[in-house]
Specification:
By secondary structure, the protein is an alpha+beta fold. It is 44% helix and 17% strand. The protein folds into two domains: 5-54 and 150-201, no CATH class; 58-146, no CATH class. It holds the Pfam family AbiTii. Residues 5-189 form the AbiTii domain.
């Protein structure tokens, strides 16, 4: 049996992921699953303030900046170096280093090939909480690598591939975007929804309608 065009587009390259998501939105519309529809919309448009961000979009960065190490009489100022943050407790360190990547898929694809770097700025007043005898933190920002962004894009592409392959296998060619019918058993429709949710959120214990997700936070970008 000939494979669906949407599956061929997934294999051909990342630049078509936005189109794949849009077509998948149309294909799955008849299921009426709000959670799946919201995920597709968020991946296309980006996650808004207050939206919950899936774990695969949560990044841990490197604390970089300027600091002075010494006793005031003798010391050395480090610039654009890794900043010691060991004074913070583990929970605070996690909060500082973590970034919930909320950009839509087209923006992510652009970012991974852009010359600019993804940076979360840290307010200057917070630097004082990191300072201690012998260490004065002057400037701090959290840096994230292009490989991390590439990993997020690859993760999204892999999820879409799993979902489309399953639909293509169970319901046939998807090219006319009209996949489901009234004759399909309800149990079969519920099963495909559960499969898609499990693929999206990587948690086999999640059931349809479960709202437990990682909460979003602000993103910072920099040159």
């Amino acid at each position: 049996m000939a494979k669906s065009q949407i599956l061929k587009d997934l294999v051909s390259g990342e630049e078509k992921l936005d189109s794949v998501l849009t077509r998948l939105k149309v294909i799955l519309a008849d299921l009426g699953n709000e959670e799946i529809n919201k995920w597709i919309n968020n991946e296309i448009q980006g996650y808004g303030e207050g939206d919950e961000v899936p774990p695969y979009r949560v990044l841990t960065g490197e604390p970089m900046g300027d600091f002075y190490l010494g006793n005031g009489v003798k010391g050395y100022q480090y610039s654009k170096s890794r900043v010691p943050i060991g004074k913070l407790d583990k929970e605070m360190q996690k909060d500082v280093l973590t970034l919930h990547l909320t950009d839509g898929i087209s923006s992510l694809i652009h970012m991974q090939y852009s010359d600019s770097q993804l940076i979360k700025p840290i307010p200057a007043e917070f630097c004082g909480t990191l300072s201690q005898p012998g260490l004065q933190v002057l400037k701090l920002s959290i840096h994230y690598s292009k490989n991390q962004i590439h990993g997020v894009v690859a993760n999204i592409k892999n999820k879409l591939t799993d979902i489309v392959m399953k639909l293509d296998k169970d319901f046939g060619n998807l090219d006319d975007l009209d996949v489901f019918s009234e004759e399909d058993p309800q149990q079969e429709l519920e099963a495909i929804q559960q499969y898609i949710i499990n693929v999206i959120f990587e948690d086999k214990s999640i059931t349809i309608g479960d709202g437990n997700r990682i909460k979003d936070s602000d993103i910072g970008h920099g040159e």
